[in-house]
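[step 3/7] fold_predict: job queued, chain A
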Amino acid sequence: MNKGIKLAHGEYLNFLNAGDCYYDKYALEKVISAEPQADILCGNKKLGTDDKEKIWEAPEKITDELLYFSTIGHQASFIKRDLFNQYGLYDENYKIASDWEKWIVFFLQHHCSYQKINEKLTTFDLTGISSCNISLATQERTEIINKYYSAHRQRILKKRGIKNRRITYTFKELLFSVKNDFSKKYKILTIFGIKIILKRHKK
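[step 4/7] structure written:
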């Protein structure tokens, strides 16, 4: 990625990894039509390259809580090239989480502006290294969290996360149940204690 950044001349940069692709031939037109002004743009992305429409939606806004528990779609993001000149390139010591680390730098340290593009822009290949090497991803995530989040802040976010996400289960429900999450946007399918999060279809 860093080699590409050094060679690029455009205003915005987008990073598609091996196996990823644009959702359709109109993806870049959708970005231009959104009249981008923010430092970082992010659209929706399709999960997996099969025919099933599993869509990850970009968040409305970026908070430290969101970045602590999750991330935003790197493949569906467009980043102003000047940000890398101002705040540095990706840390290549991280093989999986360098993009997530840079989100923290951009949003939490330097308060870069953000714009959601509510369009499907890219297709994310679920067989890549970030999806398959869970052990390395967890190791890098822990290192990054401890680097940028104080122990006190981590405790606050963990308590808040538990409070916002707590769903109680009876023993029978742990064996099999379907429940709504608090946002009503997802259903949580539980089978023998394993939770699968499914997006609700709009009627």
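[step 5/7] annotate
The CA atoms of residues 6 and 89 lie 9 Å apart.
The beta strands are 12-13, 21-22, 40-47, 55-56, 77-80, 114-124, 176-180, 186-191, 194-199.
exit 0
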